[in-house]
From TrEMBL, chain A:
Biological source species: Halostreptopolyspora alba
Protein name: Sugar ABC transporter permease
Major subcellular location class: membrane
Stated family: Belongs to the binding-protein-dependent transport system permease family.
Keyword terms: Cell membrane, Membrane, Transmembrane, Transmembrane helix, Transport
Domain of life: Bacteria
Membrane topology: Multi-pass membrane protein
A single cellular component GO annotation: plasma membrane
UniProt cross-references to InterPro entries, sorted A to Z: ABC_transporter_permease (IPR051393), MetI-like (IPR000515), MetI-like_sf (IPR035906)
From TrEMBL, chain B:
Top-rank taxon: Bacteria
Protein name: Extracellular solute-binding protein
InterPro entries found in the cross-reference section: Bact_solute-bd_prot1 (IPR050490), SBP (IPR006059)
Ranges annotated as spanning the membrane: none
Natural source organism: Halostreptopolyspora alba
Length: 336, 425
């Protein structure tokens, strides 16, 4: 800016009534260019600004811990003693030859199958029932979700008493009808069953409501047409309802898989600790992680176990995705 | 204040504390320059009156943060130690976590530097010794101890034709071998109850009486396979298992508490704080049915805590003063009078207030005298790093799997050794 111009401006300032001098062409150009730049930036950047809170929070509480866990897993790291030095992939090498890890993996998968298959089947049937014109439908629809909002502590106390070996209600009933008591914690399969019951009790309603929502999107006239053609209720369910909610079923399978790979709360409550029974008969991978990292303060190894869960979930999710796309393409070729 | 837990509630606590990171802030100096201290304890330390007294004498304000269950507090303590922030100025360190805390001994002030060395005389030797880090720093001053005795059902013993008087019974089972004999006699009678609840705490009690080493030698090397005390413990509890003397219960499980209520077993290990547990679980209907006898062997202990001053504090001097005040003989006496927390101060243990204390629920048993005697007899024993994790894996889990018939002796022992090696690694 030249000296003369600045002198002119100072005169203007001394007489406020005088009209302001028009900006010079260069200045106007500059201002226009700046506002164009700003609006371009606004167009380009503001969407990112709007979504950034999620990414900042995800980065801080999601991505960073995952990466930091990996970093820790490459070290000999005690919870209280801290970093004891870089050991590369030693923790993972140990993990791959660790019998306790395979035991935990087997337990996790076993409980997963035992819990999820009946749960999803039952949820499907329940949703179908709730989708019909039954009496007190609203009441039952609310009813199925109640276990989901029950406090874990209350659930712990109730199920602990139900599955007691000597003084539990279930064993009392079994003895009364002559079946005999079951060693709920000692027997591997019995303990898996007990845990599966706890999981299903808690999550059944959740999946039911998801199915119900999907079912309500199915056009009514399909059922009417089928009914006119003389299809039974069962046939309608098998050939209209199930195929129509198939994407939702896959969604619940994926969500359940992710949830079950991290199975922790129920077995911990059931066994009152991370060890999962006297012989680890129901110790899941997540419990092993806690036992190592917190109970035995072996943070490095615990982190390696944690990462194995992460990898497992990714693998299972990929398998699911492959499976889903197979089904979809099969469905499409059928239609053709 | 001891290593106890309530089955399901404990589990729920584990879960919830695993998920929650409570943000706590350490105290500081208030605006007018007065020092404010925070002391963190759990359960019932019985410090209310003592803290008021301390505030009056020194003009320092003290806030007590009390955690319900020891597990909650242990997890919080570990996390805040690891984080290097958030702890109070004085913290309670329970027996079960003491050695883990020792690993970060640098996170605590050496109380010798604040004149606590003069207090050595007043403490039980083993309690004093256990408060030291491996390199000789005085990390914690002893608060209460659990002591050890045996609780038994007088009615069942009478029915079985065994002595039901506590002095006769104490004389009858002078050694653990005698104890097994009594058990066999009991199980051969017609009484419809098991002799004992489970083996796990008996095995712990036996090991601790050795006055020597247990799973680890003094260089912190795992010696589980050569250790005489471990062998003795497994030998005695093995006899209990082979003679089917227990109800095969897992301690603290719902079945275990129900079994106390139902009177499903006649004998259980009984540190001082267990009396309250029995009274609570067995209820008024069983008043006068239980009694307390001396523990076989030489004394014993289960539970108890120390007070330490973390380096996180801004007022180490005042904090150390508070810790010393609370663990002085007078402090011990006040805690005993408030909550019957068995003192670790010799002077208080020998005082009339303790020695002449009886418990109405337990047939007016002179519990003060019984526990004090056991505590005074106990020889210091070396624990070693990771002791409690190993003890849990061996004497609770592996031994219990044998007791409950999931494994035979050899398998259980193999599991114990391999788990111990895994932990010690």
């Amino acid at each position: 800016m030249s000296v003369v111009k600045s002198g002119a401006r100072s005169r203007d300032e001394s007489s406020p009534g005088a009209p302001r001098e028009d900006p010079s062409p260069t200045q106007r150009e500059r201002r226009e260019r700046r506002s164009a730049l700003l609006s371009r930036l606004d167009m380009r950047l503001s969407p990112y600004m709007f979504v950034s809170p999620y990414f900042i929070i995800f980065g801080t509480f999601g991505l960073f811990p995952v990466l930091f866990t990996f970093w820790i897993s490459l070290h000999d790291w005690g919870l209280l003693t801290g970093n004891q030095g870089f050991i590369g992939l030693d923790n993972y090498v140990t993990l791959l030859s660790d019998a306790k890890f395979y035991n935990a993996l087997g337990n996790t998968l076993g409980i997963f199958l035992l819990a999820i298959v009946p749960q999803l089947l039952l949820a499907l049937l329940l949703a179908d029932t709730l989708n019909r014109n039954i009496r007190l439908r609203g009441f039952f629809r609310v009813g199925v979700i109640i276990p989901y909002i029950t406090s874990i502590a209350a659930m712990a106390i109730i199920f602990g008493q139900l599955f007691g070996r000597d003084f539990g209600l279930i064993n009392y009933a079994l003895e009364t009808i002559g079946v005999g008591a079951v060693e709920w914690t000692n027997n591997r399969f019995a303990s898996w069953t007990a845990i599966a019951v706890m999981i299903d009790w808690r999550w059944l309603g959740f999946n039911t409501l998801i199915y119900l929502a999907a079912m309500q999107a199915i056009p009514r006239d399909m059922y009417e047409a089928a009914a006119i053609d003389g299809a039974s209720r069962l046939r309608q369910f098998a050939q209209i309802t199930v195929p129509m909610v198939r994407p939702t079923i896959m969604f619940t399978v994926i969500i359940s898989t992710i949830g079950q790979m991290q199975l922790f709360t129920e077995p911990v409550i059931f066994g009152r600790g991370y060890e999962g029974g006297t012989q680890g008969q129901f110790q899941t991978v997540a419990m092993l992680m806690f036992e190592e990292a917190m109970g035995r303060q072996n943070f490095g190894y615990g982190s390696a176990v944690a990462w194995s869960i992460f990898v497992l979930i990714v693998v299972f999710a990929l398998v699911n995705v492959l499976f889903v796309s197979r089904i979809r393409s099969a469905g499409e070729s059928e239609r053709r | 204040m001891q290593g106890r837990a309530h089955g399901a509630r404990r589990a729920a606590a584990i879960v919830s504390s695993g998920l929650l990171l409570t943000a706590t802030s350490a105290c500081g100096t208030s605006d007018d320059g007065d020092v404010e201290l925070v002391i963190e304890t759990f359960g019932t330390f019985g410090y209310e009156e003592l803290l008021e007294q301390f505030e009056e004498e020194t003009g320092i304000t003290v806030e007590e943060r009390v955690y319900g269950e020891v597990e909650d507090w242990n997890e919080q303590l570990t996390q805040n130690l690891a984080a290097g922030d958030g702890l109070g100025d004085v913290v309670a360190i329970e027996e079960g976590i003491l050695l883990d805390v020792m690993q970060s001994g640098d996170s605590f002030h050496d109380l010798y530097e604040y004149g606590a060395g003069d207090m050595e005389e007043s403490f039980l030797d083993w309690k004093w010794d256990m408060g030291h880090t491996p390199d000789g720093k005085l990390l914690g001053l002893g608060t209460d101890i659990g002591g050890m005795a045996v609780c038994y059902r007088t009615d069942y013993y009478e029915e079985a034709g065994l002595p039901s008087d506590r002095e006769e019974l104490s004389a009858e089972w002078e050694t653990w071998e005698d104890f097994v004999e009594v058990g066999i006699e009991f199980s051969e009678s017609d009484v419809d109850a098991s002799f004992a609840d489970t083996t796990s705490e008996f095995s712990n009690a036996i090991m601790r009486q050795s006055g020597d080493v247990m799973f680890f030698n003094e260089d912190n090397e795992l010696i589980i396979e050569e250790s005489e005390s471990v062998e003795h413990a497994w030998d005695i509890t093995g006899q209990m298992i082979e003679n089917d003397l227990t109800a095969e219960l897992e301690m603290w499980s719902d079945d275990w508490t129900a079994a106390i209520q139902e009177g499903a077993f006649a004998t259980m290990p009984c540190p001082a704080w267990m009396l309250g547990q029995i009274e609570e679980n067995a209820g008024e209907d069983s008043a006068g049915l239980w009694d307390v006898a001396e523990v076989p062997g030489n004394g014993g202990n289960w539970g108890g805590s120390w007070l330490g001053v973390p380096t996180q504090t801004d007022h180490p001097e005042e904090a150390a003063e508070l810790a010393q005040f609370l663990t002085s003989p007078e402090g011990h006496l006040s805690a005993w009078e408030a909550r019957n927390n068995l003192p670790s101060s010799v002077e208080t243990l020998e005082s009339e207030a303790v020695q002449e204390h009886t418990n109405e629920y337990f047939n007016d048993a002179p519990v003060g005298e019984i526990y004090a005697e056991g505590a005074l007899e106990l020889e210091p024993v070396y624990f070693g790093l990771n002791h409690f994790a190993v003890q849990q894996a061996t004497n609770a889990e592996a031994l219990l799997s044998w007791e409950q018939g999931q494994a035979d002796r050899e398998e259980a022992w193999e599991q114990a050794v391999s788990e111990a090696e895994r932990i010690a690694e």
